[in-house]
Design goal:
The structure holds two protein chains of two kinds. Chain A is an all-alpha fold. Chain A has helices at 19-42, 53-66, 68-74, 83-86, 96-127, 130-140, 148-181, 194-220, 227-258, 263-271, 275-299, 304-330, 332-335, 356-376, 380-385, 387-390, and strands at 5-6, 342-343. Helices cover 23% and strands 22% of the residues of chain B. Chain B has a domain at 35-121 and 176-237: Alpha-Beta Plaits (2-Layer Sandwich), CATH 3.30.70. Chain B is α+β, with helices and mostly antiparallel strands. In chain B, the strands form four sheets. Chain B has a four-stranded mixed sheet with strand order 9-1-11-10. A three-stranded antiparallel sheet of chain B has the order 3-2-4. Chain B is globular and about 70 Å long. In chain B, β5 and β6 (142-144) form a beta hairpin. Classes of the chains: A mainly alpha, B alpha+beta.
Chain lengths: 392, 244
């Protein structure tokens, strides 16, 4: 049979989780990571990253709105997906999705953004005209009091929401890792480290994504990039990436040392079918190279220009690396037989419901969402309004 | 035997009804079937399997199994003395049309292993279903409700035995039902009924008169992948250690 080496159980030859299921944990990871970056400023008082605070929240929201779409497209019967809310199966990790998603979207992200932007929204509802005015008026939810006292309450409430948001972000992405890590039938997935690895790689990708967006948008607006901010983000990205890489290597070393019955099969797969996506893209180019470069920025005095270049290159490589990691988990986990006697091939389709074009469209979509959000809730007005405070 | 005209007149309609029933495959009605009185499983007697593929064909016909997917299949193992843990396995088209003839191997052995859903008592597939569309019945059969299944394929990933697939037309999870529509009416499964050597036998573990009890006492019987702790209820007699 074409694309099959050795023996696969006959029902295993076709992969049932496609590139869209690769995209799903990637997107939720970006959400979680972006939110963690926002919380650095809000909770941990890392003032240097303040210029990215609102952008990080809007990025998280844009990607969160996109997150369920790959799943919906993948489902055989998307019209039945509300059943996960009405009759969730208590023993299923996946059944949690609806609740975790809604909790994170409504109780955390939207609420926090609303609290943070409420003053701006009220002002815009008074300053704009026509349809836009109506939109802003609806967004005020009837809460138009922007007195000092009211804003102080907003600030306090926002802090509490962010505090709740941090474990929620961990829950959102940790549970995605658990979906894979809890499948005992699949030795490539089954690992208690999986949720932790997913969380740390999510943080790295989200932070890299927001850093790149901040740099690109600032340049597009003809403004100066705040190097103190970018340096701080890059430092956090570097340290979290070290933890992420260490965890992944721990998992790998553990597998190699234990060498259980699945090892021969998995080892063969890593050296053949996953060699490029895992060894070359994920580990060498996507992890070691940016880690070395980021390490150099920490220990060697470099010009601003050189640092910017390294951050941009490292950010892009990290995003590629984390995508490759998701690919290697989701697709890699289906390429070998549960008999450990053979391997199959993933044949990605082009213009089908779960094909390449759908995946590309779903990757572009959050940027459209972000564009609308940036137009509606510009994050930089805040900078201007608080400009004198920055020098305090 | 002399049959009078009167007897013939009585027998003919009875035979006609019986023949019609056979042709239509209509099983007897069993209104007294009580789910709690049964605990179904299957016994596979590996030395008896000749790899004819009758079971695969019967299953496909009985259950309208889509082409290229299998509710049951047969594997041919070739295990050599010097490589016990790395057997050569084939299952062309699920063994539906049987297997090519093999030469005698003085240093190895050939045997067939029929596979199907293990109707696990602690099945990982039912555990992971996000809406409970797949479930175990009180009589021990793992089923999928096709009107409720989302088609997310999480159960396909969770099955350690590769017994599930997504039905290409219905777009829901599909698998062996142990011919539930038949066994609840007092019939055996299509695969068991069509096995020419009796290598497959439907067993009812709650029936004290079922010969399975005697068989389990007197034979060395195993299940597939016991380390998975799924409570599999397909029992294999003469299972080689190389089988995965």
């Amino acid at each position: 049979m074409s694309g099959v080496e050795g023996y696969m159980y006959p029902n295993e030859i076709t992969l049932f989780w496609s590139v869209l299921i690769v995209l799903y944990p990637y997107i939720t990871g970006l959400v979680a990571g972006a939110f963690i970056l926002a919380s650095l400023e809000r909770i941990f008082r890392v003032e240097a990253v303040k210029p990215t605070y609102r952008l990080a929240l809007l990025t998280a929201l844009a990607f969160l709105l996109d997150a369920p779409l790959p799943l919906q497209l993948h489902l055989g019967h998307p019209e039945r997906s509300p059943e996960m809310y009405f009759t969730p199966h208590s023993t299923s990790a996946m059944a949690m999705f609806g609740y975790v998603y809604l909790w994170y979207l409504m109780a955390v992200l939207v609420f926090e953004i609303w609290l943070d932007y409420r003053r701006d929204i009220v002002l815009k509802s008074q300053q704009t005209r026509g349809l836009l005015r109506l939109v802003y008026k609806i967004m005020t939810l009837g809460s138009t009091n922007i007195s000092e006292r009211a804003l102080a309450i907003d600030e306090k409430a926002g802090w509490i929401v962010t505090l709740i948001g941090i474990p929620s972000a961990f829950l959102l992405h940790g549970y995605v890792g658990f979906i894979f890590g809890s499948i005992k039938a699949n030795p490539w997935w089954s690992s208690p480290l999986m949720p932790v690895v997913f969380i740390f790689s999510a943080m790295v990708s989200g932070i890299a994504g927001v850093m790149l967006l901040y740099m690109a948008l600032t340049k597009m607006r003809g403004q100066t990039i705040d190097m103190r901010c970018v340096d701080t983000i890059a430092m956090y990205m570097f340290y979290i990436f070290i933890i992420d890489f260490s965890l992944e290597m721990l998992d790998l070393v553990h597998r190699i040392y234990e060498a259980d019955e699945s090892f021969r099969s998995l080892n063969f797969m890593v050296h053949t079918k996953l060699f490029f996506s895992q060894i070359v893209v994920q580990i060498l180019l996507g992890t070691l190279l940016p880690l070395i470069l980021l390490f150099l920025t920490q220990v060697v005095k470099m010009s601003e220009k050189a640092r910017k270049r390294i951050y941009t290159f490292s950010g892009i490589m990290i995003l590629i690396s984390v995508f490759a990691m998701r690919w290697n988990v989701v697709i890699g986990g289906q390429l070998f037989s549960k008999s450990f006697l053979g391997y199959t091939t993933y044949k990605m389709t082009l213009a089908t419901r779960e094909g390449l074009l759908a995946a590309i469209a779903l990757t572009i979509l959050p940027f459209l969402f972000l564009w609308v959000l940036l137009k509606l809730l510009p994050p930089w007005d805040h900078e201007k309004a608080h400009a004198p405070a920055a020098g305090d | 035997m002399n049959i009078s005209r009167r007897h013939l007149l009585i027998l003919l309609p009875t035979a006609a009804v019986a023949w019609k029933s056979v042709l239509a495959g209509t099983p007897e009605e069993s209104p007294n079937y009580k789910m709690t009185e049964h605990w179904w499983g299957m016994l596979i007697d590996i030395p008896k399997c000749i790899g004819c593929g009758n079971c695969v064909r019967a299953c496909a016909t009985e259950n309208n199994v889509p082409e290229g997917h299998f509710r049951t299949w047969v594997e041919q193992y070739h295990v050599t003395d010097w490589n016990l843990t790395n057997p050569e396995v084939i299952s062309p088209d699920g063994g539906k049309e049987g297997f090519p003839a093999v030469k005698e191997d003085p240093n190895g052995k050939y045997f067939f292993v029929p596979k199907l859903c293990n109707h696990c008592a602690d099945s990982p597939c039912t555990q992971v279903c996000p809406v409970g569309a797949t479930f175990i019945t009180p009589d021990g059969v793992v089923l999928v409700d096709p009107k409720y299944c989302l088609g997310c394929a999480y159960c396909v990933q969770a099955c350690p035995y590769g017994c599930r697939y997504i039905h290409p037309e219905k777009r829901v999870a599909d698998k062996c039902t142990l011919c539930y529509h038949r066994i609840t009416k007092g019939l055996t499964t299509a695969c068991c009924e069509n096995c020419p050597t009796g290598a497959r036998q439907l067993v009812d573990l709650k029936n004290p008169n079922d010969p399975i009890h005697e068989f389990l006492r007197t034979h060395s019987v195993q299940i597939l992948k016991p380390q998975m702790a799924t409570g599999a209820k397909v029992f294999y007699n003469g299972l080689d250690g190389s089988v995965r």
